[in-house]
Design brief:
The chain has helices at about 15-25, 25-30, 45-65, 115-130, 145-155; strands spanning about 5, 10-15, 75-80, 85-90, 100-105, 135-140, 160-165, 165-170, 180. By secondary structure, the protein is an alpha+beta fold. It has one domain (about 5-180): 3-Layer(aba) Sandwich (Aminopeptidase). The protein has a 9-stranded mixed sheet with strand order 7-8-6-5-4-3-2-1-9, covered by helices on one side. The longest helix has 21 residues, at about 45-65. The radius of gyration is 15 Å and the shape is globular.
Length: about 180
Amino acid sequence: MIFIESDRLKLIPLKHHQLLLFDQHWDELQRTLGLNTSSMVVDDEVKADMAEALYHFWLPNTHAYPDLYYWYTNWLIILKNINVTVGGIGFNGYPDDYGETSVGYMIDEQHRGNNYATEAVNAICKWGFDFSILKNVKADTGINNLASQRVLTKSGFRKLEQRNKSVFYILNKAVGNSTIHK
């Protein structure tokens, strides 16, 4: 099983069949992964975004590209000391012809303010940069989402532009401090 480990976190990419459990049988997925049961608290907008990603990106692409699923899926963010899911993170696909992809993430409302998002972003970007094809990781966040903007800034992303209600960032190939397990 592929996973990424950092000081406090373990990131686990979900395969296609696990995404099906993620959607309909959350407790069963946690059991099959050996995790302690948790009920993540997320607002309605995040739930809608995750449902959109699940049905229109994660499921179709993990099915179409099973050997590259980790570029197209949700990675669970696990807090190692209590073995509980505290969020999710993932890339927006295999790097394009310019060596770019983007990253998105969310943290359970009960676990915010602990720098888990920053640690997870650092870990997954370092993992991605270990592939020679990846040159840049992009991200965007709402203009009013100052916490997410701080995550990106602390992770070394630089602001590209602000357009409409979003702020756009980029991270050039860099080195983080996670340990990779394949």
